[in-house]
Write a structure and sequence with these properties.
This protein is an alpha/beta fold. It is built from 23 helices and 19 strands. α3 crosses α4 and α17 runs antiparallel to α23. The longest helix has about 30 residues. The radius of gyration is 31 Å and the shape is elongated. About 0% of the residues have low confidence.
Length: about 625
């Protein structure tokens, strides 16, 4: 891009030469042309040297390149004109227009000198001045300075080139740690916006008025203190900003968090989302007696293990593949799973086992659930225990069997990642998951594609069923999550159809999903219904009978009850015909609505569907 700009300026110089030489005599014309060629050569040398220097510094912006172009012109003009006081161009000094050009160059020089002086001001002041002149539709704000915020900010800068990233702080401590972090912000060219006053009744945008002019404002509260983040949501939930706040489960029950602009980030949820996205289970499909299977073993069922179980179950519903999940947990209490998952507790493919990993017979019991290929997740809640157990399992499978296995070890703290070596030997691999650098990623935290996809699906549903139509903002948080979960299973659905998602600049031709065969269309719709069922089952829902619906509704046919967590549609595909007949609408048709919404969301995300290589 910078080369194009340089060529454009050279072309402008040549045009200027043609215009000026029309006013000169033959001798003066030759003198002027010679001088211009020297000027162009000098300009290229000056500008090239400046560009070389700023490229070495990295993290350059458009403003940096603009400043280089102007500085190069100013240095060249200074060399040939300013220092010579017009003596070499005596033939031109009689023309007022030439003096105007001279003063324009001089004005540019003074502007650059002023910017140099401004750069000597404090980082806070310079950030405010730049913000004042910045033009952007979206601003990404961070309410605290820590490693998580820096990792996410780096991810935003990578995913959204040229994104405006601002750290908004109330007061600023001067301890050594903060100074080191500020240096990192400055090196990355992030802005810092400090408000020296704090008032409980003051809106966020009143404290930081320079941010109010941006159309979309995303604010990330990633403080280590969950209570502080939740308090932040409470104080500013009425402001026109999207807030992403990190919090533990026990802080998430407040009613004011249900607002559409509040998004609660739970670290264990991010870990599960990252695992399903980066390491899909369909890579471990194996065939046994002409039937395909996925064998998942989860060791530990704390918050992370539970979230991983839910996401794997929802994302891997295939028509022709059996999904077997076994959960080992020493702290399981009798009846707990039955209360939490009443709809799948009796499922023969899902097992919850109360087993102590330190017991004498653990490995023997564990080995009894291994199959030809295995997807194993270790999430005991302690990084070092997870690493220790993963290494034992790796050696055990390697030496005691001919099985294959992919072992995923939950490591929460970045410093512990060095204790685990990623290995791959004889079809057995170990990978770290859930580290802060992996999960504090823009795509994982914001889930922009899932939101776009979910809203498009809701629009399609509204068109197909106007009698029950609701705008996105009117939906319950559970229904929104249900729609978003379609995106969680998107890769699996593509895999099942022999397709995959690629960037728009991929050389392969985009596949028209409306050209799917009747058989594939049916298969995709059935798997979409299975996914919908799976999402409701892992969230504690159960089947509602037609008799129950009639009792609930009296004069109205009730299709679901969020309070009682029951739905008429929570049945097998073939049973939907009875439900459709009772409700007087084609329930199966809704499972075909994902296709156009999926393509629409992908295009907005600069992606497309292609046939798998």
């Amino acid at each position: 891009m910078i080369i194009v700009e340089l060529l454009a300026i050279i072309a402008a110089f040549l045009l200027l030469i043609v215009i000026i030489t029309n006013f000169l005599e033959k001798k003066a014309k030759r003198q002027f042309i010679a001088l211009i060629f020297v000027a162009v050569f000098g300009y290229l040398i000056n500008t090239g040297a400046l560009i070389y220097n700023i490229v070495l510094l990295k993290n350059t912006t458009v403003f940096d390149y603009f400043a280089v172009l102007i500085k190069g012109a100013q240095y060249t003009a200074s060399l040939l004109v300013f220092e010579d006081k017009f003596n070499s161009l005596g033939a031109l000094t009689a023309h007022n227009w030439f003096k105007i050009i001279y003063y324009v160059f001089l004005g540019c020089a003074y502007i650059l000198y002023s910017l140099t002086l401004i750069s000597l001001l404090s980082y806070k002041t310079l950030s405010k001045i730049k913000l004042l002149f910045t033009r952007s539709n979206t601003v990404y704000c961070f309410s605290s300075i820590n490693d998580k915020s820096l990792m996410l900010a780096d991810s935003v800068a990578k995913e959204k080139p040229g994104a405006l990233i601002v750290f908004t702080l109330i007061n600023l401590s001067q301890d050594d740690e903060t100074k080191k972090t500020l240096k990192k912000l400055k090196n990355r060219r992030f802005y810092i916006y400090v408000c020296s006053r704090e008032s409980e009744n003051e809106d966020f945008l009143e404290k930081y008025p320079l941010l109010s002019r941006f159309k979309r404002k995303l604010l990330f509260c990633l403080d280590e203190n969950s209570e502080k983040n939740i308090s932040f949501c409470k104080d500013y939930s009425n402001d026109p900003i999207e807030i992403y706040a990190m919090a533990e489960e026990e802080f998430c029950g407040s009613s004011y968090l249900n607002k559409s602009n509040i998004h609660i980030i739970k670290q264990h949820d991010l870990t599960a989302r990252m695992l399903v996205n980066a390491y899909p289970c369909y890579n471990n499909i194996y065939c046994d007696n002409e039937k395909k299977h996925i064998n998942v073993i989860i060791l530990g069922r704390g918050r992370s293990g539970n979230a991983i179980f839910k996401n794997i179950f929802v994302a891997n519903q295939f028509k022709d593949v059996n999904l077997n999940i076994t959960v080992f947990d020493a702290k399981d209490k009798n009846g707990f799973y039955k209360l939490q998952y009443p709809g799948i507790y009796d499922n023969e493919n899902i097992k919850f086992l109360k087993t102590d990993i330190y017991s004498e017979n653990f490995l023997e019991e564990f080995f009894g659930f291994l199959r030809k290929d295995n997807y194993i997740v270790v999430a005991l809640g302690d990084d070092k225990k997870n690493i220790e157990l993963a290494n034992i399992i790796y050696k055990y499978i390697l030496t005691q069997s001919n099985y294959k296995a992919s072992i995923y070890v939950h490591i929460r703290h970045e410093k512990n990642k060095t204790l685990l070596q990623d290995v791959l030997k004889d079809g057995i691999s170990i990978h770290a998951i859930g580290t802060e650098s992996q999960i504090f990623n823009y795509d994982i935290v914001v889930g922009e594609f899932m939101d776009i996809f979910a809203k498009a699906i809701n629009d399609n549903y509204n068109k197909a069923n106007p009698a029950n139509a609701k705008n996105w903002c009117e939906l319950s948080e559970f229904t929104k999550s249900s729609n978003r979960s379609v995106g969680v299973a998107a890769k699996s659905k593509m895999f099942s159809l022999g397709l995959e998602i690629a960037d728009m600049n991929d050389e392969r031709e985009e596949f028209d999903i409306n050209l799917l065969s009747e058989e594939d269309n049916l298969k995709a719709a059935m798997e979409e219904h299975m996914r919908w069922n799976a999402f409701h089952l892992v969230n504690g829902w159960n089947k509602m009978t037609i008799e129950e619906s009639m009792a609930y509704g009296k004069d109205k046919k009730v299709r679901k009850s969020e309070d009682k967590k029951k739905s008429l549609s929570l049945v097998e595909w073939d049973e939907l015909d009875n439900v459709s007949k009772y409700l007087g609408e084609d329930i199966k048709s809704y499972d075909y609505l994902w296709k156009n919404a999926f393509v629409e969301a992908l295009h907005k995300y600069n992606k497309k569907i292609v046939e798998k290589e």
